[in-house]
Write a structure and sequence with these properties.
Elements lengths: L12 H14 L8 E5 L12 E2 L9 E2 L3 E4 L13 E4 L4 E3 L11 E4 L4 E4 L2 E4 L9 E2 L10 E3 L7 H9 L4 E5 L3 E6 L4 E2 L10 E2 L2 H11 L3 E4 L7 H14 L2 E5 L10 H8 L1 E5 L3 E2 L5 E5 L2 E6 L3 H11 L1 H7 L9 E6 L3 E2 L5 E11 L2 E6 L7 H6 L2 E5 L5 E2 L4 E6 L3 H5 L1 E6 L4 H11 L5 E6 L2 H9 L6 E3 L11 H7 L5 E15 L10 H7 L3 E4 L4 H12 L13 E2 L2 H10 L4 E5 H6 L3 E15 L6 H12 L1 H10 L2 E2 L6 E4 L1
Parallel strand pairs: 13-16, 13-17, 14-15, 17-21, 19-24, 22-25, 29-30, 33-34, 33-35
Antiparallel strand pairs: 1-12, 2-11, 3-10, 4-6, 4-7, 5-9, 8-9, 18-20, 20-21, 22-28, 23-27, 24-25, 24-26, 26-28, 31-36, 32-35, 32-36, 32-37, 32-38
Helix pairs in contact: 3-6, 4-5
């Protein structure tokens, strides 16, 4: 037994997988085949542990396949239009579909071909063939025949077939029982308001949800405080009661990370630390014959690591082989750098722009849950690569159906809260159109249009010489690209400050003089250009602004920084300040436009967006409710080339 409590140096992913597979095999995890007998009515989606055979034939009697009359075919041997045959009531029997064929009859004449002379006599003008319109005994399946094989996942039609042949109970594989245990004294439940230092515990909901989706029967534990003795007790009980234990947080080497040490005391640590990003400090251990996976605390790291090591475990436990994944080839929209020696998993949004399926990173950071919410797929950059260049073809594992990807309009450029409203309103329409937004600034959007990577781009670039927005930049950087510049809104830009403006900030001069902390937007952003223009107009050296080099990529991120107290002010739109109940000091009104290449104007996705912008009054009302917007030119073509 390994008693060592150290952070083991990272193992390459293939080696870690090999060691883990060997341990699981050695401890008989894959050999376990627990089963249970359940009612067929409750068996939808379950996997058969043994074959199912018909207990009786279906149909179990000769049955009429049509409404009509049952006859003996010889009685109609000479029937024709010229010489119709009449049958008395003792030579035919009226039947409905599904009725048993009476004794002495062996054919059914459809009601449409029967002429009743009287209630007791019919006239027929065509012959019958033996067993016409009759479902014979066992036509569907004969007693003792195989209905479904072992290992089959039961569908609704399968339930019907089993019940039709008398099988009312079946033996199915019992899903592996799994439990997710969160650790950390700082964890609180979602119904509480977090205080500084407290963290809402939602990881177990994500992890247990995916375990159930992959075929396990997963439950959640209440958080375990940072107490080795309590963690030891919890782990021993969980290992005794479950087939699989997932431990969340405490996997690294911090002073309060006890997972590895406790697991080494009560079991065997197979691997601690794998060369993957995110998810490096994963622990793979055994307590007796029960596998325990110690995951990092950050939600994205935890989920992606569990996906790497646990999904295939569950599939193998259920005898289903390798989990199926769908891959597509796409073009990377911007370069990605990756540390050497590490397998990196990158969240990707996808959208088909013309003939190209474009892949754009959806966000970074092991704690950025929304990067996975928005992600359409995963890109794996192998350990031997330093990254992938813009325009390169990459292989993406899909996380959502291909049909949803194909219904996605790609927007790359400046951020505005209206883009979220567009996405929401389009999702309520039928057919659904999705919007994938990458916030890289106005100039980044124009460059994306130039490279053919987006259906449209948001831009608010001010030309100081002319006072005009966007047009000179389009003429310079998109020369020769047929396009329309369509207005989305006019909006207020200004300084976002804390509620009540306790620092009495009224201008950039105040910020420079009082050394108030500031957060900036990234180079190429229209807000950054406006900030620099105001500083030049007021003769303020950017070096005098504390935090000028501190950058964020969206208005909401700037507002969040002010709301958290990490900075005292930042430049952004009024809607972002309103959203977080902050105060706002107006600086300027600016025009925010959409750059739309003409080749996409007839695209159904883009057409739906333009129709929404121009004609949907509910959408306009929702924009105005955000505050700081004027829609006087909304949908108007401001420039065309």
């Amino acid at each position: 037994m390994n008693k060592q409590n150290v952070y083991v140096s990272n193992k390459p992913l293939p080696e870690a997988k090999r060691l883990w597979h060997e341990a699981l095999t050695r401890h008989g995890f894959y050999a376990r085949k627990p089963t249970e007998e359940i009612a067929v009515d409750d068996a939808h989606g379950r996997i058969l542990a043994e074959p199912v055979f018909a207990r009786r034939s279906s149909p179990s009697y000769n049955a009429a396949a049509m409404d009509g009359i049952a006859v003996h075919f010889l009685d109609l041997a000479g029937a024709s239009e010229a010489r119709p045959v009449r049958l008395k009531r003792d030579r035919f029997v009226p039947v409905n579909t599904g009725n048993a064929i009476p004794e002495g009859c062996n054919a059914v004449v459809m009601i449409e071909d029967v002429h009743y002379v009287s209630e007791s006599e019919v006239e027929l003008n065509m012959p019958a063939t033996p067993w016409q319109h009759v479902r014979n005994i066992g036509e569907d399946i004969v007693a003792t025949e195989l209905i479904l094989p072992e290992g089959h996942r039961i569908r609704a039609i399968d339930q019907g077939a089993m019940l039709a042949t008398g099988a009312t109970r079946v033996r199915v594989q019992r899903p592996p029982r799994a439990i997710v245990i969160p650790t950390g004294s700082e964890l609180i439940q979602p119904d509480r308001e977090p205080q500084p230092g407290e963290i809402i515990e939602f990881n177990t909901r994500i992890l247990a949800g995916y375990l159930n989706e992959w075929g396990a029967n997963a439950s959640r534990s209440m958080p375990v405080a940072d107490d080795p003795a309590l963690l030891r007790e919890t782990l021993l009980r969980a290992a005794a009661e479950n087939d699989l234990v997932v431990l969340n947080a405490g996997a690294s080497a911090g002073t309060r990370d006890y997972s590895a040490g406790v697991l080494a005391e009560v079991g065997e640590v197979i691997v601690h630390g794998v060369a993957i990003k995110p998810g490096k400090p994963v622990i793979l251990a055994m307590i007796g014959d029960t596998p325990v996976i110690g995951l990092p605390g950050y939600p994205v790291s935890a989920l992606l690591t569990m996906r790497v090591f646990v999904r295939e475990m569950i599939s193998a436990f259920l005898g289903q082989g390798e989990p199926e994944s769908q891959y597509v080839e796409a073009t990377l929209s911007r370069p990605l750098h990756s540390p050497m020696g590490v397998d990196q998993f990158v969240r990707i949004t996808l959208g088909r722009v013309g003939d190209n399926l474009m892949a754009t990173p959806s966000g970074k950071g092991a704690g950025a849950v929304m990067s996975l919410v928005r992600a359409d797929g995963l890109l794996t950059i192998p350990a031997g690569s330093e990254g992938v260049g813009a325009g390169e073809k990459v292989r993406i594992e899909l996380l959502r159906p291909q049909t949803e990807v194909d219904a996605t309009a790609v927007c790359i450029g400046s951020h505005d809260n209206i883009l979220d409203l567009i996405a929401n309103h389009l999702h309520k329409r039928r057919p659904i159109v999705r919007v994938s937004s990458a916030h890289v600034g106005s100039m980044g959007g124009i460059m994306a249009i130039r490279r053919g990577e987006a259906h449209f781009a948001g831009s608010h670039l001010l030309d100081e010489a002319t006072g005009e927005y966007n047009i000179s930049f389009i003429q310079r950087f998109l020369k020769g690209v047929p396009l329309q510049l369509i207005n989305l809104c006019h909006r207020e830009q200004g300084l976002i400050v804390a509620k009540g403006n306790p620092k009495k900030i009224t201008s950039f001069a105040d910020i420079a003089r009082e050394r108030h902390t500031f957060i900036n937007r990234q180079n190429g952003a229209g807000t950054r250009l406006l900030t620099d223009k105001v500083l030049r107009d007021e003769g303020i050296d950017p070096a005098k602004i504390v935090g000028y080099a501190h950058e964020e990529y969206t208005h909401m991120a700037v507002a969040a920084a002010v709301a958290s107290g990490s900075v005292e002010t930042g430049m952004g739109i009024r809607a972002a300040a309103n959203a977080l109940n902050l105060d706002f000091v107006p600086v300027a009104e600016e025009r925010y436009d959409l750059v739309v290449p003409k080749r996409f104007l007839d695209d159904t996705k883009v057409a739906a967006i333009l129709d929404l912008i121009r004609h949907d009054r509910d959408f306009h009302a929702a924009i105005l409710a955000l505050g700081g917007y004027n829609l006087r030119d909304c949908g108007k073509v401001m420039y065309e080339q």
